[in-house]
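G., the chain you wanted modeled:
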Amino acid sequence: MTPYILSILQGSLLVIQVGLASLLVAVLLGMAGALAKLSNSKPAIWAANGYATVIRGIPDLVLMLLIFYGGQIGLNHLLEALGDFGPIEINPFTAGVLTIGFIYGAYMTETFRGAILAIPKGQMEAGMAFGLRPWQVFWRITLPQMVRLALPGFTNNWLVLMKSTALVSLLGLQDMTYLAKQAGAAARGEVPNASLLFLVFAGFIYLAMTTVSMWGLGWLEKKYSMGAGREQA
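Predicted structure as tokens:
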């Protein structure tokens, strides 16, 4: 039984890698989407709204399969049209990270957008009046306050994103869920209720990950909130 447990624990490291890589993609897309929605450019606003509509309208699993299988087909057709290129296969890890990041980038967009809107416009105007350039105003004034205001929504998005990493097992990536199912099938004759036992074990590991995340991000939120009440007063 010990080798199966060690195998599942090893799969948990892959879950963390997928989660952190997906979070990076989601944060970058979320920031771009938020700035697009708050811009004066109609094409940028339409693109950001279309992005959110796609995410709201298509289930996560369908998007993942579309990117993994449809992306490979489209890429190979494109390369075939450009010249004599061999078939290319999309790595399941890459497909999983890009899909999860793409999905949660839409939710991060609304989180960051709401946080930026909560910052008084007078602060940005004051920075411009002092001669700061727009990127300096964003970096020195908007971003630090946005981080504090966005942390509660960011925490919720991260927790859901972590749980969504279980979907990558459907692409053949040997994450914790995949290995738990494999261990249950292999130990069926050795361990009573093996499939249920190993899946419950994987569930407890997910619970431990989300609990640690909640504690860490909660501490970070308190740290960023220190003195905020006095500033507003």
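The mean pLDDT is 85.

Shout if anything looks off.
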